[in-house]
Protein backbone atom coordinates (compact mmCIF):
# COMPACT_ATOMS: atom_id res chain seq x y z
CA UNK A 1 0.00 0.00 0.00
CA UNK A 2 1.15 3.52 -0.81
CA UNK A 3 -0.14 6.17 1.57
CA UNK A 4 -0.09 9.93 1.00
CA UNK A 5 -1.11 12.65 3.41
CA UNK A 6 -1.45 16.00 1.67
CA UNK A 7 -1.73 19.24 3.64
CA UNK A 8 -3.30 17.62 6.71
CA UNK A 9 -4.31 20.25 9.26
CA UNK A 10 -6.09 19.55 12.53
CA UNK A 11 -7.22 22.31 14.89
CA UNK A 12 -8.84 22.15 18.31
CA UNK A 13 -10.64 25.34 19.34
CA UNK A 14 -8.05 27.50 17.62
CA UNK A 15 -5.03 25.39 18.62
CA UNK A 16 -3.33 23.94 15.55
CA UNK A 17 -2.05 20.45 16.40
CA UNK A 18 -1.13 19.59 12.79
CA UNK A 19 -0.24 22.30 10.30
CA UNK A 20 -0.32 21.37 6.59
CA UNK A 21 1.49 18.06 7.06
CA UNK A 22 2.65 16.15 3.98
CA UNK A 23 3.76 12.54 4.32
CA UNK A 24 4.35 9.70 1.85
CA UNK A 25 4.75 6.07 2.91
CA UNK A 26 5.85 3.66 0.18
CA UNK A 27 4.81 -0.02 0.03
CA UNK A 28 6.88 -2.21 2.35
CA UNK A 29 8.58 0.82 3.93
CA UNK A 30 9.19 1.60 7.59
CA UNK A 31 8.54 5.34 7.77
CA UNK A 32 9.36 6.80 11.16
CA UNK A 33 7.58 9.85 12.49
CA UNK A 34 10.02 11.47 14.91
CA UNK A 35 9.29 14.29 17.29
CA UNK A 36 9.16 15.30 20.91
CA UNK A 37 6.19 14.62 23.16
CA UNK A 38 3.40 16.96 22.11
CA UNK A 39 4.79 17.55 18.62
CA UNK A 40 1.55 16.33 16.99
CA UNK A 41 2.59 12.80 15.94
CA UNK A 42 -0.26 10.91 17.59
CA UNK A 43 -2.83 13.50 16.51
CA UNK A 44 -1.76 13.02 12.89
CA UNK A 45 -2.12 9.26 13.18
CA UNK A 46 -5.52 9.61 14.84
CA UNK A 47 -6.58 11.63 11.79
CA UNK A 48 -5.27 8.90 9.50
CA UNK A 49 -7.06 6.18 11.48
CA UNK A 50 -10.40 8.00 11.38
CA UNK A 51 -10.50 8.94 15.05
CA UNK A 52 -10.32 12.65 14.18
CA UNK A 53 -11.70 14.42 11.11
CA UNK A 54 -9.06 16.66 9.50
CA UNK A 55 -9.70 20.39 9.47
CA UNK A 56 -8.07 20.53 6.04
CA UNK A 57 -6.11 18.30 3.67
CA UNK A 58 -6.70 14.89 2.16
CA UNK A 59 -5.62 11.26 2.42
CA UNK A 60 -4.75 9.11 -0.60
CA UNK A 61 -4.44 5.32 -0.63
CA UNK A 62 -2.72 3.93 -3.72
CA UNK A 63 -3.29 7.24 -5.44
CA UNK A 64 -7.03 7.46 -4.72
CA UNK A 65 -8.55 10.01 -2.29
CA UNK A 66 -10.31 8.45 0.69
CA UNK A 67 -12.42 9.79 3.55
CA UNK A 68 -12.45 7.95 6.87
CA UNK A 69 -15.49 8.64 9.06
CA UNK A 70 -14.18 6.30 11.74
CA UNK A 71 -11.67 3.53 12.45
CA UNK A 72 -13.92 1.03 10.67
CA UNK A 73 -13.38 2.89 7.40
CA UNK A 74 -9.62 2.96 7.93
CA UNK A 75 -9.49 -0.76 8.72
CA UNK A 76 -11.63 -1.54 5.66
CA UNK A 77 -9.06 0.35 3.58
CA UNK A 78 -6.25 -1.84 4.98
CA UNK A 79 -4.92 0.40 7.76
CA UNK A 80 -4.34 -0.96 11.26
CA UNK A 81 -3.17 0.84 14.39
CA UNK A 82 -1.49 -0.36 17.57
CA UNK A 83 -2.07 2.36 20.13
CA UNK A 84 0.45 3.28 22.82
CA UNK A 85 -2.12 2.15 25.41
CA UNK A 86 -3.39 -1.24 24.24
CA UNK A 87 -7.06 -1.61 23.35
CA UNK A 88 -7.50 -5.07 24.89
CA UNK A 89 -10.01 -6.45 27.39
CA UNK A 90 -7.91 -8.19 30.08
CA UNK A 91 -10.52 -10.81 31.08
CA UNK A 92 -11.07 -11.92 27.47
CA UNK A 93 -8.97 -14.53 25.72
CA UNK A 94 -6.70 -13.64 22.82
CA UNK A 95 -9.24 -15.07 20.37
CA UNK A 96 -12.10 -13.13 21.94
CA UNK A 97 -10.12 -9.88 21.73
CA UNK A 98 -9.16 -10.49 18.12
CA UNK A 99 -12.74 -11.35 17.18
CA UNK A 100 -14.20 -8.30 18.94
CA UNK A 101 -15.86 -6.08 16.35
CA UNK A 102 -15.32 -8.73 13.66
CA UNK A 103 -17.39 -11.55 15.15
CA UNK A 104 -18.34 -14.71 13.27
CA UNK A 105 -21.48 -16.54 14.41
CA UNK A 106 -22.77 -20.01 13.79
CA UNK A 107 -26.17 -21.64 14.08
CA UNK A 108 -28.48 -19.76 16.44
CA UNK A 109 -26.19 -16.73 16.54
CA UNK A 110 -23.63 -18.50 18.76
CA UNK A 111 -20.19 -16.91 18.62
CA UNK A 112 -17.82 -19.08 16.55
CA UNK A 113 -14.18 -18.53 17.42
CA UNK A 114 -12.72 -21.44 15.45
CA UNK A 115 -11.97 -19.37 12.37
CA UNK A 116 -10.41 -16.68 14.56
CA UNK A 117 -8.26 -19.27 16.35
CA UNK A 118 -7.05 -20.62 13.01
CA UNK A 119 -6.17 -17.11 11.80
CA UNK A 120 -4.28 -16.34 15.03
CA UNK A 121 -2.32 -19.60 14.79
CA UNK A 122 -1.50 -19.03 11.11
CA UNK A 123 -0.21 -15.49 11.73
CA UNK A 124 1.56 -16.52 14.93
CA UNK A 125 3.36 -19.37 13.14
CA UNK A 126 4.27 -17.18 10.17
CA UNK A 127 5.93 -14.48 12.25
CA UNK A 128 7.04 -16.53 15.25
CA UNK A 129 4.71 -14.70 17.64
CA UNK A 130 4.13 -17.72 19.91
CA UNK A 131 0.65 -16.56 20.96
CA UNK A 132 -1.91 -18.98 22.39
CA UNK A 133 -5.43 -18.08 21.09
CA UNK A 134 -7.02 -19.33 24.33
CA UNK A 135 -4.75 -17.49 26.78
CA UNK A 136 -6.30 -14.76 28.92
CA UNK A 137 -4.85 -11.38 28.00
CA UNK A 138 -4.40 -10.41 31.66
CA UNK A 139 -2.00 -13.36 32.05
CA UNK A 140 0.24 -12.30 29.15
CA UNK A 141 3.45 -10.24 29.41
CA UNK A 142 3.24 -6.74 27.94
CA UNK A 143 5.33 -7.69 24.89
CA UNK A 144 2.95 -10.54 24.03
CA UNK A 145 -0.08 -8.27 24.50
CA UNK A 146 1.45 -5.98 21.89
CA UNK A 147 1.72 -8.95 19.52
CA UNK A 148 -1.99 -9.58 20.08
CA UNK A 149 -2.67 -6.01 18.94
CA UNK A 150 -0.59 -6.61 15.81
CA UNK A 151 -2.46 -9.88 15.17
CA UNK A 152 -5.78 -8.01 15.49
CA UNK A 153 -4.69 -5.71 12.67
CA UNK A 154 -3.31 -8.50 10.48
CA UNK A 155 -6.45 -10.63 10.84
CA UNK A 156 -8.30 -7.67 9.37
CA UNK A 157 -5.91 -7.70 6.37
CA UNK A 158 -3.97 -4.55 7.29
CA UNK A 159 -1.48 -3.57 4.60
CA UNK A 160 -0.26 -0.55 6.57
CA UNK A 161 0.36 -0.72 10.30
CA UNK A 162 0.66 2.33 12.58
CA UNK A 163 2.75 1.71 15.71
CA UNK A 164 2.31 4.58 18.19
CA UNK A 165 5.26 4.77 20.64
CA UNK A 166 5.43 0.96 20.51
CA UNK A 167 8.41 0.55 22.85
CA UNK A 168 7.12 2.72 25.71
CA UNK A 169 6.22 -0.28 27.89
CA UNK A 170 8.73 -2.85 26.58
CA UNK A 171 11.96 -4.17 28.01
CA UNK A 172 15.07 -3.83 25.80
CA UNK A 173 14.83 -7.46 24.71
CA UNK A 174 11.14 -7.08 23.86
CA UNK A 175 12.09 -3.99 21.86
CA UNK A 176 14.63 -6.01 19.88
CA UNK A 177 12.01 -8.70 19.27
CA UNK A 178 9.55 -6.06 18.03
CA UNK A 179 12.13 -4.70 15.59
CA UNK A 180 12.68 -8.22 14.28
CA UNK A 181 8.91 -8.60 13.81
CA UNK A 182 8.77 -5.30 11.93
CA UNK A 183 11.44 -6.62 9.57
CA UNK A 184 9.36 -9.73 8.85
CA UNK A 185 6.23 -7.65 8.26
CA UNK A 186 7.93 -5.34 5.76
CA UNK A 187 9.52 -8.33 4.00
CA UNK A 188 5.97 -9.58 3.36
CA UNK A 189 4.96 -6.18 1.91
CA UNK A 190 3.35 -4.51 4.94
CA UNK A 191 4.07 -0.79 5.31
CA UNK A 192 4.83 0.53 8.80
CA UNK A 193 4.48 3.98 10.33
CA UNK A 194 6.64 3.95 13.47
CA UNK A 195 5.96 6.84 15.85
CA UNK A 196 8.64 7.63 18.42
CA UNK A 197 10.70 10.26 20.21
CA UNK A 198 13.65 7.87 20.65
CA UNK A 199 16.45 8.44 18.18
CA UNK A 200 18.17 5.15 18.92
CA UNK A 201 15.14 3.09 17.91
CA UNK A 202 14.21 5.25 14.96
CA UNK A 203 17.67 4.91 13.46
CA UNK A 204 17.60 1.13 14.02
CA UNK A 205 14.28 0.41 12.35
CA UNK A 206 13.53 3.10 9.76
CA UNK A 207 13.87 3.35 6.00
CA UNK A 208 12.84 7.01 6.04
CA UNK A 209 12.43 9.55 8.82
CA UNK A 210 10.08 12.52 8.92
CA UNK A 211 10.58 14.97 11.79
CA UNK A 212 7.65 16.93 13.23
CA UNK A 213 8.03 19.94 15.49
CA UNK A 214 5.07 21.88 16.88
CA UNK A 215 2.71 20.27 14.41
CA UNK A 216 4.78 20.96 11.29
CA UNK A 217 7.08 18.82 9.20
CA UNK A 218 10.51 20.41 9.66
CA UNK A 219 12.61 17.93 7.71
CA UNK A 220 13.18 14.43 6.41
CA UNK A 221 16.27 12.26 6.79
CA UNK A 222 17.70 8.82 6.16
CA UNK A 223 18.46 6.50 9.11
CA UNK A 224 22.20 7.03 8.68
CA UNK A 225 21.82 10.73 9.51
CA UNK A 226 23.85 11.75 12.60
CA UNK A 227 21.94 11.74 15.88
CA UNK A 228 22.89 15.37 16.42
CA UNK A 229 21.27 16.33 13.12
CA UNK A 230 18.00 14.60 14.00
CA UNK A 231 18.05 16.09 17.49
CA UNK A 232 18.54 19.57 16.08
CA UNK A 233 15.56 19.09 13.77
CA UNK A 234 13.44 17.97 16.72
CA UNK A 235 14.18 21.00 18.90
CA UNK A 236 15.12 23.68 16.38
CA UNK A 237 18.64 24.31 17.63
CA UNK A 238 21.95 22.57 18.18
CA UNK A 239 21.89 19.99 20.96
CA UNK A 240 24.84 18.74 23.00
CA UNK A 241 24.44 14.97 23.31
CA UNK A 242 27.15 14.51 25.91
CA UNK A 243 26.41 15.10 29.57
CA UNK A 244 30.10 15.12 30.46
CA UNK A 245 29.55 13.66 33.92
CA UNK A 246 32.39 12.86 36.28
CA UNK A 247 32.54 9.67 38.41
CA UNK A 248 30.74 9.81 41.74
CA UNK A 249 32.65 9.97 45.02
CA UNK A 250 30.20 8.24 47.39
CA UNK A 251 30.26 8.92 51.10
CA UNK A 252 28.34 7.37 53.97
CA UNK A 253 25.01 5.57 53.52
CA UNK A 254 22.51 8.33 54.30
CA UNK A 255 19.28 6.55 53.31
CA UNK A 256 18.80 2.98 54.50
CA UNK A 257 15.71 1.08 53.38
CA UNK A 258 15.14 -2.28 55.04
CA UNK A 259 12.44 -4.88 54.32
CA UNK A 260 10.07 -2.35 52.78
CA UNK A 261 6.64 -3.66 51.87
CA UNK A 262 3.77 -1.73 50.31
CA UNK A 263 0.37 -3.31 49.67
CA UNK A 264 -1.76 -2.22 46.72
CA UNK A 265 -5.43 -1.32 47.16
CA UNK A 266 -6.29 -4.93 46.33
CA UNK A 267 -3.93 -6.28 48.98
CA UNK A 268 -1.27 -7.47 46.54
CA UNK A 269 2.35 -6.52 47.35
CA UNK A 270 3.35 -3.58 45.16
CA UNK A 271 6.74 -3.40 46.91
CA UNK A 272 7.96 -6.72 48.26
CA UNK A 273 10.75 -6.91 50.87
CA UNK A 274 12.94 -4.25 49.24
CA UNK A 275 16.20 -3.22 50.92
CA UNK A 276 18.91 -0.84 49.70
CA UNK A 277 21.17 2.06 50.72
CA UNK A 278 21.80 5.40 49.03
CA UNK A 279 25.12 7.09 49.79
CA UNK A 280 26.05 10.75 49.99
CA UNK A 281 27.27 12.02 46.63
CA UNK A 282 25.78 9.28 44.45
CA UNK A 283 22.76 8.78 42.20
CA UNK A 284 20.81 5.54 42.59
CA UNK A 285 18.67 5.15 39.47
CA UNK A 286 15.63 2.88 39.78
CA UNK A 287 14.75 1.11 36.53
CA UNK A 288 11.82 -1.04 35.48
CA UNK A 289 8.86 -1.17 33.15
CA UNK A 290 6.09 1.14 34.34
CA UNK A 291 3.91 -0.44 37.04
CA UNK A 292 6.49 -2.63 38.77
CA UNK A 293 6.45 -0.85 42.11
CA UNK A 294 8.53 2.25 41.40
CA UNK A 295 5.70 4.67 42.18
CA UNK A 296 4.80 2.93 45.44
CA UNK A 297 8.46 2.79 46.51
CA UNK A 298 8.90 6.55 46.17
CA UNK A 299 5.54 7.28 47.76
CA UNK A 300 6.47 5.13 50.76
CA UNK A 301 9.68 7.13 51.30
CA UNK A 302 7.67 10.36 51.04
CA UNK A 303 4.99 9.25 53.52
CA UNK A 304 2.31 8.95 50.86
CA UNK A 305 1.59 5.25 51.44
CA UNK A 306 -0.38 4.21 54.50
CA UNK A 307 0.08 0.49 53.77
CA UNK A 308 3.87 0.48 54.06
CA UNK A 309 5.85 -1.58 56.57
CA UNK A 310 9.55 -2.05 57.18
CA UNK A 311 12.09 0.66 57.90
CA UNK A 312 13.26 3.81 56.09
CA UNK A 313 16.09 5.57 57.89
CA UNK A 314 17.37 9.00 56.81
CA UNK A 315 20.52 9.88 58.68
CA UNK A 316 19.49 7.37 61.33
CA UNK A 317 15.99 8.85 61.82
CA UNK A 318 12.95 6.76 60.92
CA UNK A 319 10.75 8.22 58.17
CA UNK A 320 8.09 5.52 58.05
CA UNK A 321 4.97 6.66 59.86
CA UNK A 322 5.72 10.37 59.53
CA UNK A 323 3.57 12.73 57.45
CA UNK A 324 4.63 14.29 54.15
CA UNK A 325 5.23 17.77 55.50
CA UNK A 326 7.39 16.44 58.30
CA UNK A 327 9.46 14.43 55.82
CA UNK A 328 9.93 17.45 53.54
CA UNK A 329 10.93 19.57 56.53
CA UNK A 330 13.49 16.93 57.49
CA UNK A 331 15.39 17.78 54.30
CA UNK A 332 13.90 15.63 51.54
CA UNK A 333 13.43 17.22 48.12
CA UNK A 334 10.80 15.57 45.93
CA UNK A 335 9.90 15.85 42.24
CA UNK A 336 6.73 13.74 41.72
CA UNK A 337 6.11 11.84 38.49
CA UNK A 338 2.98 13.85 37.69
CA UNK A 339 3.98 17.49 38.05
CA UNK A 340 0.61 18.87 36.96
CA UNK A 341 -1.28 16.97 39.67
CA UNK A 342 1.24 16.62 42.49
CA UNK A 343 4.07 19.06 41.78
CA UNK A 344 2.34 22.34 41.01
CA UNK A 345 -0.83 24.30 41.63
CA UNK A 346 -1.62 25.37 38.09
CA UNK A 347 -3.82 28.29 39.15
CA UNK A 348 -0.97 29.74 41.28
CA UNK A 349 1.72 32.03 39.92
CA UNK A 350 5.32 31.04 39.36
CA UNK A 351 6.31 32.98 42.47
CA UNK A 352 3.69 31.21 44.59
CA UNK A 353 4.64 27.75 43.31
CA UNK A 354 8.28 28.43 44.12
CA UNK A 355 7.52 28.67 47.85
CA UNK A 356 5.04 25.82 48.33
CA UNK A 357 7.55 24.04 50.57
CA UNK A 358 8.55 27.21 52.49
CA UNK A 359 5.44 29.38 52.57
CA UNK A 360 5.34 29.22 56.39
CA UNK A 361 9.08 29.62 56.95
CA UNK A 362 11.28 32.68 57.16
CA UNK A 363 12.17 34.64 55.12
CA UNK A 364 8.98 33.98 53.11
CA UNK A 365 6.71 34.45 56.09
CA UNK A 366 6.57 36.05 59.49
CA UNK A 367 4.03 34.31 61.68
CA UNK A 368 0.91 33.83 59.56
CA UNK A 369 1.77 36.73 57.23
CA UNK A 370 3.52 36.22 53.89
CA UNK A 371 6.42 38.56 53.16
CA UNK A 372 5.67 39.59 49.58
CA UNK A 373 8.99 41.38 48.88
CA UNK A 374 10.96 38.26 49.89
CA UNK A 375 8.70 36.06 47.74
CA UNK A 376 9.15 38.39 44.75
CA UNK A 377 12.94 38.50 45.22
CA UNK A 378 13.09 34.70 45.45
CA UNK A 379 11.06 34.36 42.26
CA UNK A 380 13.27 36.82 40.38
CA UNK A 381 16.39 34.93 41.44
CA UNK A 382 15.06 31.45 40.58
CA UNK A 383 13.54 32.49 37.25
CA UNK A 384 16.94 33.79 36.19
CA UNK A 385 18.98 30.90 37.65
CA UNK A 386 16.80 28.18 36.13
CA UNK A 387 16.00 30.01 32.89
CA UNK A 388 12.25 29.74 33.47
CA UNK A 389 10.78 31.32 30.37
CA UNK A 390 7.69 33.35 31.11
CA UNK A 391 6.50 36.93 30.78
CA UNK A 392 6.95 37.48 34.50
CA UNK A 393 7.05 35.61 37.78
CA UNK A 394 3.38 36.49 38.17
CA UNK A 395 2.43 34.29 35.19
CA UNK A 396 0.24 31.32 36.09
CA UNK A 397 1.97 27.94 36.08
CA UNK A 398 -0.76 26.64 33.74
CA UNK A 399 0.47 28.96 30.98
CA UNK A 400 3.98 27.46 30.84
CA UNK A 401 5.43 24.63 28.79
CA UNK A 402 6.12 21.27 30.43
CA UNK A 403 9.83 22.00 30.56
CA UNK A 404 9.36 25.32 32.32
CA UNK A 405 6.88 23.79 34.77
CA UNK A 406 9.43 21.12 35.64
CA UNK A 407 12.08 23.79 36.17
CA UNK A 408 9.79 25.45 38.73
CA UNK A 409 9.47 22.18 40.66
CA UNK A 410 13.22 21.59 40.55
CA UNK A 411 14.04 25.18 41.52
CA UNK A 412 11.69 24.95 44.50
CA UNK A 413 13.12 21.65 45.75
CA UNK A 414 16.73 22.79 45.36
CA UNK A 415 16.04 26.08 47.13
CA UNK A 416 17.13 24.71 50.52
CA UNK A 417 19.80 22.37 51.87
CA UNK A 418 18.83 18.75 51.25
CA UNK A 419 19.63 15.50 53.00
CA UNK A 420 18.02 13.48 50.17
CA UNK A 421 16.71 14.31 46.70
CA UNK A 422 14.14 12.13 44.89
CA UNK A 423 12.95 12.69 41.33
CA UNK A 424 10.35 10.42 39.70
CA UNK A 425 10.24 10.58 35.89
CA UNK A 426 12.19 13.87 36.04
CA UNK A 427 12.04 14.59 32.30
CA UNK A 428 8.70 13.09 31.23
CA UNK A 429 7.12 15.28 28.56
CA UNK A 430 10.01 17.76 28.70
CA UNK A 431 11.76 19.22 25.64
CA UNK A 432 15.36 18.28 24.96
CA UNK A 433 16.77 21.68 25.85
CA UNK A 434 15.16 21.52 29.28
CA UNK A 435 16.30 17.92 29.73
CA UNK A 436 19.91 18.98 29.29
CA UNK A 437 19.48 21.64 31.98
CA UNK A 438 17.61 19.38 34.41
CA UNK A 439 20.17 16.60 34.16
CA UNK A 440 23.07 18.95 34.77
CA UNK A 441 21.35 20.46 37.80
CA UNK A 442 20.67 17.00 39.26
CA UNK A 443 24.31 16.06 38.75
CA UNK A 444 25.37 19.30 40.46
CA UNK A 445 23.30 18.32 43.51
CA UNK A 446 24.98 14.91 43.57
CA UNK A 447 28.40 16.55 43.32
CA UNK A 448 27.48 18.76 46.28
CA UNK A 449 27.22 15.56 48.34
CA UNK A 450 23.46 14.97 48.36
CA UNK A 451 22.24 11.38 47.95
CA UNK A 452 19.93 11.21 44.93
CA UNK A 453 17.26 8.72 43.81
CA UNK A 454 16.09 8.93 40.20
CA UNK A 455 13.16 6.81 39.03
CA UNK A 456 12.68 6.55 35.28
CA UNK A 457 11.09 4.16 32.81
CA UNK A 458 13.49 5.51 30.15
CA UNK A 459 16.46 3.14 30.21
CA UNK A 460 18.72 5.67 28.49
CA UNK A 461 18.05 8.19 31.24
CA UNK A 462 18.75 5.57 33.89
CA UNK A 463 22.08 4.68 32.25
CA UNK A 464 22.96 8.34 31.71
CA UNK A 465 22.42 9.42 35.32
CA UNK A 466 22.80 6.36 37.52
CA UNK A 467 26.03 5.71 39.42
CA UNK A 468 24.30 2.51 40.50
CA UNK A 469 21.10 1.05 39.04
CA UNK A 470 18.40 -0.79 41.01
CA UNK A 471 15.93 -2.82 38.94
CA UNK A 472 12.39 -3.56 40.13
CA UNK A 473 10.19 -6.33 38.74
CA UNK A 474 6.73 -7.03 40.20
CA UNK A 475 7.72 -5.06 43.27
CA UNK A 476 10.85 -7.08 43.97
CA UNK A 477 14.43 -5.86 43.74
CA UNK A 478 16.22 -7.89 41.06
CA UNK A 479 19.55 -6.44 42.11
CA UNK A 480 21.67 -3.30 42.20
CA UNK A 481 24.35 -3.06 39.51
CA UNK A 482 26.96 -0.48 38.43
CA UNK A 483 25.85 2.38 36.21
CA UNK A 484 27.88 1.07 33.27
CA UNK A 485 26.03 -2.27 33.19
CA UNK A 486 25.03 -3.30 29.65
CA UNK A 487 21.55 -2.82 28.23
CA UNK A 488 21.24 -6.59 27.72
CA UNK A 489 21.76 -7.34 31.41
CA UNK A 490 19.43 -4.54 32.51
CA UNK A 491 16.82 -5.72 30.03
CA UNK A 492 16.88 -9.26 31.41
CA UNK A 493 16.58 -7.91 34.94
CA UNK A 494 13.62 -5.76 33.90
CA UNK A 495 12.00 -8.97 32.64
CA UNK A 496 12.46 -10.77 35.97
CA UNK A 497 15.99 -12.21 36.08
CA UNK A 498 18.14 -11.38 39.09
CA UNK A 499 21.51 -9.76 38.49
CA UNK A 500 23.47 -13.02 38.69
CA UNK A 501 21.09 -14.84 36.32
CA UNK A 502 21.14 -11.97 33.82
CA UNK A 503 24.92 -11.78 33.85
CA UNK A 504 25.24 -15.55 33.37
CA UNK A 505 22.75 -15.61 30.50
CA UNK A 506 24.42 -12.77 28.63
CA UNK A 507 27.83 -14.35 29.14
CA UNK A 508 26.60 -17.77 27.97
CA UNK A 509 24.54 -16.68 25.00
CA UNK A 510 26.19 -13.43 23.98
CA UNK A 511 22.71 -12.01 23.54
CA UNK A 512 22.56 -10.05 20.25
CA UNK A 513 21.39 -6.47 20.44
CA UNK A 514 19.42 -5.08 17.51
CA UNK A 515 19.75 -1.47 18.65
CA UNK A 516 23.36 -0.38 18.55
CA UNK A 517 24.89 1.89 21.14
CA UNK A 518 25.72 5.41 19.99
CA UNK A 519 25.48 8.96 21.36
CA UNK A 520 22.08 9.48 22.97
CA UNK A 521 19.99 12.39 23.99
CA UNK A 522 19.28 12.84 27.66
CA UNK A 523 15.99 11.81 29.21
CA UNK A 524 15.31 8.82 27.00
CA UNK A 525 15.24 10.89 23.78
CA UNK A 526 17.60 8.32 22.37
Automatic annotation (TrEMBL):
Alphabetized Pfam families for the sequence: ABC_tran
InterPro entries given in the database record: AAA+_ATPase, ABC_carbohydrate_import_ATPase, ABC_transporter-like_ATP-bd, ABC_transporter-like_CS, P-loop_NTPase
Entry-linked Gene3D superfamilies: P-loop containing nucleotide triphosphate hydrolases (3.40.50.300)
GO MF terms, alphabetically ordered: ATP binding
Residues annotated as domain ABC transporter: 3-239, 255-499
Keywords assigned by UniProt, alphabetized: ATP-binding, Nucleotide-binding
Taxonomic superkingdom: Bacteria
PANTHER family attached to this UniProt entry: CARBOHYDRATE TRANSPORT ATP-BINDING PROTEIN MG119-RELATED, GUANOSINE IMPORT ATP-BINDING PROTEIN NUPO
Name of the protein: ABC transporter ATP-binding protein
Protein species of origin: Paeniglutamicibacter terrestris
Amino acid sequence: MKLELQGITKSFDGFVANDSVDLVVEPGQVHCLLGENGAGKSTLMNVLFGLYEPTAGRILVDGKPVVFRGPGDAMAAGIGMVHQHFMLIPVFTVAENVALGNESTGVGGILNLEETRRSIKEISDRYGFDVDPDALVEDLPVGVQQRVEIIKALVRKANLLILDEPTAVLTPRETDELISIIGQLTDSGTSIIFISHKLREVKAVSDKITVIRRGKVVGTANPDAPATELASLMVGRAVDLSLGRTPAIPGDAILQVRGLNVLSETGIPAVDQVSFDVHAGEILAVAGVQGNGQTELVEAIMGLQDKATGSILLGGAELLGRNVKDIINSGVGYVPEDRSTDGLISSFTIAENLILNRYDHAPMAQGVALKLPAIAANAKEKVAEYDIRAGSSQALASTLSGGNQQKIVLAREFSRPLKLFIAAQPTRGVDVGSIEFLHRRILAERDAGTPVIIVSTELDEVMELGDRIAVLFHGQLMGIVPGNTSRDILGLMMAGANAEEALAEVAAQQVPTTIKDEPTLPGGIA
